């Protein structure tokens, strides 16, 4: 069936645009956009993500700084490192790779990042700006979803969008981004009554739950656009929060896992970084 949203293709387009903006900024001002990633500890999945970010930066022609800190790092050491990286004029965007080891305070670390250099768009400043419709970095994963909806000309004005999940990094900002595009938005969570019935009203259904194949055919209206943010690691590989095989025949458009939303996240991180570099160069 030809109703797949090709996240790799949309991400490649975004990355191409970012590379072009990075090149132009460098040619015209001498500024090379730079991204720093601070990683604490040796979580294997995080190490893969960080390596991918580094590679993506290089491909986009950006300067990339990787700061590795031991799992025993204290909060004060982490915050001092964040301040040091934030003061580096060669760095325009920075992130602290999540999850941090349990003894560290994630919110305090995140909010130590100055808003101008927040490449993940996850600081309280960035969230406040999103909610008050001021320009600023957008949270990468939900912004990537919006980019996909636009790339596939999905009509958003007046559409009923149902977001399943209310986390700070996906569900909540996703709902605000959809609202900004004039969707009528419903947010569902673990206490929602009649999840199935509410999801079945959705013209656009976004799943960000973290439960393998939880949303099935009975959750989906015929002709809905289904975006699966979920990444679940099972013994036989990755799967999303949507039961893809059951839902694909009913959906007008649907994202696969992998190859859907996943590739968009790094692309949007690079986009936030080049935009921060442009702003710092007075553009
Ligand atoms: P969280 O665990 O922070 O949030 C999950 C949300 O789902 C919560 O709001 C929770 O509700 C809700 N939920 C849990 N169980 C149910 C249920 N039975 N019915 C309805 N709602 C439920 O996860 P994240 O938002 O961080 O991530 C969600 C998924 O997206 C994960 O699979 C994650 O791996 C993936 N992800 C993918 C990214 C990408 O790049 N593609 C990036 C980030 C995340 P409540 O608030 O009530 O507990």
Structure report:
It is globular and about 50 Å long. By secondary structure, it is an alpha/beta fold. α6 packs across α7 and α6 crosses α10. It has two domains: 89 residues, Leucine Dehydrogenase, chain A, domain 1 (Rossmann fold); 123 residues, NAD(P)-binding Rossmann-like Domain (Rossmann fold, 3-Layer(aba) Sandwich). The chain is 40% helix and 16% strand. The N and C termini lie far apart (44 Å). The mean pLDDT is 97. α2 links the parallel β1 and β2. Strands 5-4-6-7-10 form a five-stranded parallel β-sheet. A three-stranded parallel β-sheet has the order 2-1-3, with helices on both faces. It has ten helices and ten strands. Bound molecules: NADPH dihydro-nicotinamide-adenine-dinucleotide phosphate. The site of NADPH dihydro-nicotinamide-adenine-dinucleotide phosphate has 25 residues, from α10.
Summary of the model, kept short:
The protein has 283 residues and is α/β, with parallel strands linked by helices.
Name the structural class.
alpha/beta
Total DSSP E strands: 10
Number of domains: 2
Rg, rounded, reads: 19 Å
| CATH T-level fold name of the largest domain | Rossmann fold
**Average predicted local confidence, pLDDT:** 97
Content of β-strand:
15-25%
Q: Biggest sheet, strands in spatial order?
A: 5-4-6-7-10
Keywords:
single chain, 283 residues, Rossmann fold, three-stranded parallel sheet, binds NADPH dihydro-nicotinamide-adenine-dinucleotide phosphate
